TrEMBL record:
Substrate binds at residue 118. The keyword Isomerase applies. The gene is truA. The lineage of its organism: Bacteria, Bacillati, Actinomycetota, Actinomycetes, Mycobacteriales. Keywords: Isomerase, tRNA processing. It comes from the Bacteria. It catalyses: uridine(38/39/40) in tRNA = pseudouridine(38/39/40) in tRNA. Residues 10-111, 152-254 form the Pseudouridine synthase I TruA alpha/beta domain. This is tRNA pseudouridine synthase A.
């Protein structure tokens, strides 16, 4: 068997998220069925972050195990990189596998990851998003102050319990290390958020954006935003920003010789006691 690492991009608008769901078009099902057609063997993908319906990706990562013989065809010639061109001919226009490489069995797209970086695009223009970028840009109904947006975002950075921002999932922790959270305006006036954490729980990024936007529009104050970290259940006061503005931009991994150790560390589920230390998380992420 050979383990393959895939770099993936997709426009999530017309997908019902990453995870396979009966009767729905999903990213995972589309990729698995196309890979199975090319390789002529069943394929099961493990992904770095299970994105929700409408969420995009430019740097999603997944892995799969396939028989080495599946690559020994005339068109592939044993070279995994040659799969990219073959797959491009069969995949729909809104999803692409951008690179394929053979890796050791220690690599795990989910558990080997050190951190994930999301990008969020948000416009407060009165006319809404520009038509050419409307599928990947969310809109906000009131003007947003950039300084207040960054101040609110900064107040949430660190190792914290983000229960107020996460939908409950049985057996999963809501303790995460939010490493970066900041904003800039691009040349078109669109606010672009950079959000980096070791992992994200379900709905976390969009809830973070909704909370800091409420401060930036003047409806909430900074103390309210920072005070959400004291909550131990999801807060009904936190608005959830639109899915279309969110994209998984990059997944960070350690050097190959550290993959196995990282896998074990990530599987250690955090508890409240870990807020004073630095232990691994459960690796669950998705929005």
């Amino acid at each position: 068997m050979l383990r393959l690492r895939l770099l993936i991009g997709y426009d999530g608008t017309d997908f019902s998220g990453w995870a396979t769901q009966p009767g729905r078009r999903t990213v995972c099902e589309t990729l698995e069925s196309t890979l199975a057609t090319v390789l002529r063997v069943p394929v099961r993908l493990t992904v770095a972050g299970r994105t929700d319906a409408g969420v995009h990706a430019t740097g999603q990562v997944a892995h799969c195990d396939v028989p080495t013989a599946a690559l020994d065809t005339r068109s592939i010639g044993g070279d995994p990189a040659r799969l990219v061109r073959r797959l491009a001919k069969l995949l729909p226009a809104d999803v692409r596998i951008k690179s394929v490489e053979a890796v050791s069995a220690d690599f795990d797209a989910r558990f080997s990851a050190l951190a994930r970086r999301y990008e969020y695009r948000l416009t407060d223009a009165v006319w809404g998003p520009e038509p050419l970028s409307a599928r990947r840009t969310a809109d906000w109904p009131r003007p947003l102050d950039l300084a207040a947006l960054n101040a609110a975002s900064s107040s949430l950075v660190g190792l914290n319990d983000f229960a107020a921002f996460c939908r409950f999932r049985e057996g999963s922790t809501t303790i995460r290390e939010l490493q970066e959270f900041g904003w800039r305006r691009d040349d078109d006036g669109v606010l672009v958020g950079r959000v980096v954490a070791d992992a994200f729980c379900w709905s976390m990024v969009r809830s973070l954006v909704g909370a800091v936007a409420a401060v930036a529009e003047g409806r909430r104050d900074l103390d309210w935003c920072a005070g959400l970290l004291a909550e131990r259940t999801r807060s009904a006061q936190v608005p959830v920003a639109q899915a279309r503005g969110l994209a998984l931009a990059e997944v960070y991994y350690p050097p190959e010789h550290e993959w196995a150790a990282r896998n074990e560390r990530t599987r250690d589920v955090r508890s409240a006691a870990d807020l004073g230390g630095d232990l691994g998380g459960d690796g669950c992420c998705g929005d």
